[in-house]
Specification:
Oligomer: single chain
Helix content: 40-55%
Number of strands: 12
Number of domains: 3
Order of helices and strands: HHHHEHEEEHEHEEEHEEHHHEHHEHH
């Protein structure tokens, strides 16, 4: 339902942002009050406490807006509600503490306040969410504020349609009745929805009821009859929604979009929420700036070592294939001799990877310095420039060479449906110990199909551990 869906989303987003901010403020205020009353570890630093409260409120607001933490609030059960509240509280607390650390305020800020805040925030927010949900659902049922929906369908499709709608309907919609166009008798119900009309008395029945919207599901009806039906109902001031019947593909999401001025059905394997994509890009920018600072500090030392062992350029640039076939230049510290690409053809028979990647132990093209910077992943640092300008991401799938890409089949090309990354799922799942390219593709597609900001953060932490302990470096 178009209008109902918009209304329910507005209520979910804005009312819950206000509620979560209120709960966060109360929880932080109570934690600071308890700390003051019991005077643990001396008097409380009020300025630091105020800063902590403001940062917590800001982080809470940004979490709700960017991550959309309260999506499907009215549908999720008690367990999912509790998990969602804990995720929000932990994210808010950690983010606020990290910011205060960089502001050098964690020494004067009481850890006890944050510890008590975390517990109180979970308890208060979960309790308020539960009560608010019960009150809102009861209010909409009893007050008549819900969107009244009349279903127009056929006897063949009616029961299945009602079952699907009761699972997926917006929470503020009420299925009040059904008109079964080919029904012989009236007065029975379809999955709890009363059948009040057929083709003969549809307009008469609709005119006597409180109806806000009509859902029409008549795939076998001629388009001219559907058009006339919509026109007649629109004259009554009722919003009409017509089901679009098209094919479905397992594992592929469908959505109605506008391409130019044409309504189209879009099919996509993975749908990425714009807000989460924005968070991912923000992390990429911040991470790449930090990475470039580190790169600038160590470049003179790496450059000197490279030049002493193997005269030639410090950086290695190569054309790679990025998201959906886009070409770009990738940059690395040079870890091989100058003639490495020419010698690669001679070594192909020693390739240890089954598939479209090249890997061999004791590659003679790699210099001694190259072995060290590869083992420590220092050779990858110049790619922070690629990340900063948007050609790559911190986390993604590794971009193939042009030669590798030209040999890809359709299945392999889907690993390029997201922006390529500096690290990814397969790098932290064994890295050099994986020798089957199909396994690499499997891990890449697992990442794409399950992508979230949380998964990116998890992979980044796993990458740090992998590099520090030098496990399976590429």
């Amino acid at each position: 339902m178009k209008e109902a869906g918009k209304k329910s989303r507005v209520i979910e987003v804005y009312s819950l942002i206000f509620i979560d901010l209120l709960c966060t403020g109360v929880a932080f205020g109570l934690s600071a009050f308890l700390r003051q009353v019991y005077d643990v570890n001396g008097p409380l630093d009020r300025r630091s406490s105020l800063l902590g409260c403001v940062l917590s409120l800001l982080c809470c607001c940004l979490y709700n807006i960017l991550v959309d933490g309260n999506r499907d609030f009215f549908r999720r059960g008690k367990y999912k509600e509790f998990v969602a509240v804990v995720k929000c509280t932990v994210t808010v607390m950690i983010t606020a503490l990290v910011i205060m650390f960089f502001l050098h305020n964690t020494y004067t800020m009481s850890r006890m306040v944050f510890a008590v805040f975390a517990v109180l925030d979970v308890v208060i927010t979960y309790t308020v969410h539960t009560l608010y949900k019960k009150w809102m659902l009861a209010y909409y049922r009893k007050s008549g504020a819900s969107t009244k929906v009349l279903i127009v369908t056929s006897s063949e499709r009616g029961t299945t349609l009602m079952e699907q709608l009761k699972i997926n309907m917006p929470w503020d919609c009420d299925l009040i009745a059904a008109a079964v166009m080919d029904a012989v008798k009236l007065g029975y119900d379809m999955n709890g929805v009363p059948v009040v009309a057929n083709a003969e008395n549809l307009y008469e029945a609709a005119g006597k009821m409180a109806v806000d919207e009509v859902l029409i599901d008549l795939p076998d009806y001629p388009s001219e009859k559907i058009k006339q039906l919509v026109a007649d109902l629109e004259q009554m001031g009722v919003t009409c929604n017509c089901c679009i019947h098209t094919f479905s593909i397992d594992g592929v999401e469908r959505s109605i979009e506008t391409f130019g001025n044409r309504p189209v059905v879009s099919y996509t394997k993975t749908t990425i929420d714009f807000r989460q994509a924005l968070v991912k890009r923000a992390i990429d920018i911040v991470g790449s700036l930090v990475g470039l600072i580190i790169t600038a500090v160590i470049t003179p030392f790496v450059a000197l070592a490279i030049r002493i062992e193997s005269p030639g350029p410090i950086f290695f640039a190569q054309e790679r294939v990025g998201r959906n076939g886009r070409r770009f230049k990738i940059y690395k510290f040079r870890s091989m001799y100058i003639d490495a690409e020419e010698r690669k053809k001679e070594l192909m028979e020693k390739n240890q990877m089954s598939g479209l990647m090249f890997k061999m132990d004791d590659d003679p093209r790699i210099t001694k310095v190259g072995k060290f910077i590869r083992k420590t992943s220092i050779d990858e640092l110049p790619q922070f420039y690629n990340i900063l300008i948007g050609q790559m991401s911190l986390v993604g799938t590794r971009p193939p060479t042009v030669d590798e890409f030209n040999q890809y089949n359709l299945h392999y090309k889907r690993r390029l449906s997201m922006t390529p990354g500096l690290t990814g799922m397969w790098q932290v799942s064994g890295r050099s110990s994986i020798t089957d390219f199909d396994e690499v593709v499997k891990l890449d597609l697992e990442y794409i199909d399950n992508w979230s900001v949380g998964l990116d953060i998890k992979i980044l932490f796993m990458t740090v551990v992998t590099v520090l302990f030098r496990r399976g470096a590429v």
